[in-house]
Write a structure and sequence with these properties.
single chain, about 90 residues, alpha/beta, 4-stranded parallel sheet, about 20% strand, globular
């Protein structure tokens, strides 16, 4: 099963919101995936065991894993397209 990481400053509010929403949307689509919310300070450590990263901030660094737009799940703008990208990645 693939694992995705969501990160924000504290790993509590925004990342948890996005992780919960993506988890629910994936379950509704019957797509299995582990999603973990973490703080930005521990992001690189957690990405060592992850398959992808759902970013809340603009990514300037290459983490060596696919990066998805987490803002879409906060605002709803482009959410379906980003969800489809994540599903395609998980099923690949």
């Amino acid at each position: 099963m693939k694992k995705l990481i969501v990160a924000c400053g504290s790993g509590v509010a925004t990342s948890q919101t996005v992780a919960s929403k993506v988890d629910r949307l994936l379950k509704d689509a019957k797509v299995a995936c582990t999603i973990e919310a973490v703080d930005m300070k521990s992001l690189e450590h957690h990405l060592k065991t992850a398959d992808g990263y759902i970013s809340i901030v603009k990514v300037k660094k290459d983490y060596g894993v696919p990066v998805f737009n987490g803002i879409a799940f906060l605002t709803g703008v482009g959410q379906q397209q980003e969800l489809e990208k994540i599903i395609k990645f998980i099923q690949s």
